Structure formats: structure tokens, C-alpha cells
Amino acid sequence: MGRAKRETPEEAFENLRQAFDTLKANHSDPWCWHEYLTDEPKDDESSDSEPDPEAELLMPKKRTHLDRLKQHLLTCVTELNRCAQAADTAYFHMCCTPEKMKPCVIILGTSGDVDEDMLASGDASPQKIMAMLQAKLEEANNKIILLEAEIADLKGKLCESRFQAEDRWQKWQTTAMLAEETQMRLNEMTQAFQSMSDSRNQLAADYKDLYLRHLRASRMMIHKGRQMLRDQVFKCGKKENLFYSFHGFIYTLQKEKEERIRREHEAQRDRVEFALRNEVKFLLGEADRHRGAVQRLALETGRLKGDRRAFALRLMHKNRRPYEVLEYCLWIWELWQPIRPVLVLEKSLESEQAARDATIQQLVQTTQQLPPLAERIDKLQEDFVMEQIAHDVTKRELTAAGARLFSELVEKLRVHRSQELAVLHRIHEVDVEGLKERIAVLEREIAEDKHIHALKGMVVDLESNLRRALDRRKQRAFVVPPSKDTKCPQCQRENLFRSWKGMQQDGASEADMASPVGGEAPPLLRPSASLGSLSTKGVSPRFMLPGGGPKLTAIPSPEKRATYSAVWR
Predict the structure, then answer these.
(1) How would DSSP label each residue in 234-292?
(2) If DSSP states are collapsed to H, E and C, what string results for 164-180?
(3) How far is Cα 32 from Cα 164, in angstroms, rounded to an integer?
């Protein structure tokens, strides 16, 4: 790693100047402490709402004026310490490099109005500085006058540009609304025109088809009627035929009239029901217009009826030749047939006109509601932007509070680390002192040859441990030695158990006792000193050998061998 950069005297005095500026801007000015004199804002939370413990735990707590004042005072102490450290460093540099006193003092003497050139000119007397400041003040006043004139001009231009922008904005909004409304109306009118054209073409085609069918049917009926009249009716008297024909015609006219009245009532009922379902309020407000339309239609209907009747009278007056009664009936029937579909089309046209008027009224009402909706949308957008700004401000405040808390935590960790290093250094010194004392004790014991005596004791202990380990490595005998008694043919277990178990000798295992020595099998008993003194008379039969000998067999001393078998300890 390279060497650290050495601080120069100019940098030291710049740090001192920066510390002074920070202390003045944040702590020494009176208005820095005015914010703690205001009343603390109260919480806007309503008392009716139920408190949420989790939300209260996660929500950041707003600090009071007292907490902020304490933090401000601690920061002030830190800045004062920083100024003191910077002053100590500057004092050190002045002691080491006194030839740089003037540039360093110029750094401390500069301010917003007094620059380095004024101090470095040589004459730093108050009169000279005041003269320079007066010249700068006059220059600044001239600049201020020019800037004020420019600001006034810009204000006028700004007002004019704002007025023009507002006017253009209003015109643009009006134009945009009109364009949208025009497009909507044009689209709806185009669709309505297309639908009406399609329906009109369809009606014309249907009318033509129906007319051809009706013409063919009427001709067929006329032909069949003539045949029937020729074959059946004309065979009777003329007066009777005329009577029945007239009454039949009257009956037909009555049925047609009743059917027409019924259809008119049904159409009127449907129209009224449609109007009441869609725009009852509008129709109530526009009663006069509908009343006039109904009167106009009634007058037009009466006029058409009068015109038809007059036309019929003129035709009858023009053609005064004596016609037969049946011919009159036939002419009346032929005149009536074209009128029937025209009446139907007139009723349909009236229904379509009523539906069109209702749709136009709905369009007008919708158009009237567009400006309030636009204003409402703009208001909601403004509220949304304000909420976003408030969210960003809160986020920044939380970030600043987190950074401040993190800096405090880092400072505490640094202090704790320094204390921990001091404690570890102290522990290390204590350990070093203990090791030194132990080294001194060992040197003294080495000088007194105590380690030789300790090694002798260790050698004896190691030999005893080795001997004991060799004894433990020998194989152990079974708990109960096997015998030749009868066994179960299924589980291969002995049926009888012995009432005693062989005991191990001191220092020897059962495997050593069971090992053959000199070609003879050892006895199953281990005699003690008390048994050796007994005679044959005092020996119990249970301690005798199976052969019934008079004496106990002596147990030969087993040969000690260093054998090893893997046995779980």
C-alpha cells in the first residue's frame, strides 16, 4: 500500500475555515434556534378509529422539539470539537512552516465580500477594505437596478405570455372538445344513416316482395271469387247477391277498422311505454313539444283523410256512367289495398322518429356532462400529483432519519470498538505479564533441577499405565461356560441352568482360565484360601469333582500371554 497523502497548511486552514462556516450557518446564528420555539403539531389521527398495534409499531415516531434540541446540541459539540481539532492542526502547521502564515491567514480572512485579491494587495487596512467594498457595493447597486428593470420587463412579458397561454389553452380545450364531440356525432350519425339505409333498403325489398305476393294473391282471389260467383252466387237472385255482397263488404270494412284501431292502440301503447321507460323526466319537461307534435300528426291525419275522401268524390263525379254495384265494391277494395301498407309504414316512421328524438336528447345530456367530468378528472389528477409529492417528501424524510440513525449507530460502534480494543490490549498485557511470570518460574525450576524429578515420576506412571493397558487387551471369557447338557431341538437352548458362575482371578481374565496348560483342562472352581485348609470330611458334596475323588484339584497358575481380541469396552 502507498503512503498516505500528507495534509498541507493551506488544506488545514481551509478545513478550519469550513468548520467555522458550518458552525456559523448551523449553530451560531440566532435563527438556527427559532424553530424550537414554535408549538409542536398535534396528531391528526381521529380518536374514533381503533388503534392498530402493528401499524403503530412500524410507523416512525415523530421526534419532539426537546429530542431535536438535544440532537442539535450534540451536533454543536461535535462541530466545536472539529473546530478545535482543525485549530490544533493549523497551530501545528504554523509551528512547522511559519513562512506560509500570510496565505493561510488570507484563507481565514476571506468572506463573501472580501476576496483574496483584496487581502493579498498588501494594504489590508479597514479604510482600504471599506473603499473596495464601497466600489463593489456601487457596482452591485447598478447591477441590481439593471436586473430590476429586466425583471419588470420580464414580468410584463410573463403576464402577457400567461394570458396568451391561458387563452390558447382554453381554445385548445374547446377545440379538442368540439372535435371529439363532432367525431362522436359524425360517427353516430354515420352509423344511424347506414342502419336507416340498410333498414330502408330491406323494407323496400320486403315491400316489393310483399307487393308481388299480394298482387299475385289478389289476382288469384279475384279469379277464384269470379269463379265462385259465377258458379254459386250468380245462380241466385240479383237482389239477394247484392244484399249479401253489401253486408259482406260492410263486415269486412268493420273488421279492418277494428284491426287498424287495435294496431294503433298497441303501437301507441308501445310508444308510450318506450318513452316512459327511457326518458320519463325529459318527456314531462317537454310536454308542450310532444303535445304540438301529436296535434300536428292528428291534423295531418285528418287532412289526409279529407284529401282521400275528396279525391274519391272527384273520381266518382268524373265517371258518372252507371256502374254496377259489384264494380264499386271491387274498386273500393282495390283502392284500400295500397293504403294498408302505407299506414303501417307511417306508424313505423313515427316510432323511428320518436326513438331518434330520444337518442338525440340523450346525446345532448351526455355532451352537457362532459365539461364537469373533465374538470373532475383534472382535479383528481392534481390530487394524485399532490399525494405523490407528499409521498416523496415523506420518503425523503424517512431516508434522512434512517441515515442519521445509521450515522449515530456507526459512531457508537466506533466508540465501542475503540473501548473493546482498549480492553483487549489490557487483557493482552495481563496475559503477557502472566506468561512472563510463568517463564520466570520455569527458569527457576530448571535451575533447581525440578523437571528431572518430574520426568522420573512421569516415566513410572507411564510404565504402570502400559502394564495396565496390556492386561486389559487380553480376551475375556464367557459369562457362563458352555456345557454338554440337553438342548431344545427348536431354539437350541439349554434346558437346565447352573446355580453358580465361575469367578475371575485377580489380574487374569476368564479366557486365560479356560486356556489349556500342560494338556490338562482346568477345573471349573476357583479355590480360595479357606477352601485349601479344609479336609475331605469338611467339604460339601457340591464342591466335589464329578468323579467323586476325595480331594480338590489344584488350580494351576495360568500362563500370562499378551493376546488381543476386539472386545467392546
Answers:
(1) TTS-HHHHHHHHHHHHHHHHHHHHHHHHHHHHHHHHHHHHHHHHH-HHHHHHTHHHHHH
(2) HHHHHHHHHHHHHHHHH
(3) 44
CA 218 centroid distance within chain: 77
Per-residue cell: 111: 468572506
β-bridge mates for residue 517, sequence order: 520
Cα(546)–Cα(541) distance, rounded to whole angstroms? 10
Evaluate if pTM is beyond 0.70: no
316-339 pLDDT, tens digit each? 766 666 667 887 788 888 888 888
Nearest to 346 by CA among 283, 300, 308, 307: 300
pLDDT of residue 430: 92
Q: In the numeric block, which cell numbers belong to residue 370?
A: 362532459
Residue the block writes with cell 502507498: 2
DSSP string, 165-230: HHHHHHHHHHHHHHHHHHHHHHHHHHHHHHHHHHHHHHHHHHHHHHHHHHHHHHHHHHHHHHHHII
- Comparing CA positions, the residue from 344, 378, 184, 371 lying closest to residue 264 is 344
Name the nearest CA neighbour of 90 among 22, 12, 23, 20: 12
For residues 249 and 330, what is the distance between their CA atoms, to the nearest angstrom? Answer: 10
What's 293-317 look like in SS3? HHHHHHHHHHHHHHHHHHHHHHHHH
Enter the C-alpha cell of residue 103: 496565505
Set of cell numbers at residue 23: 458552525
Read off φ and ψ for residue 256, nearest 5 degrees.
Answer: -65, -40
Q: Is the Cα torsion angle 308, 314, 318, 323 positive or negative in sign?
A: positive
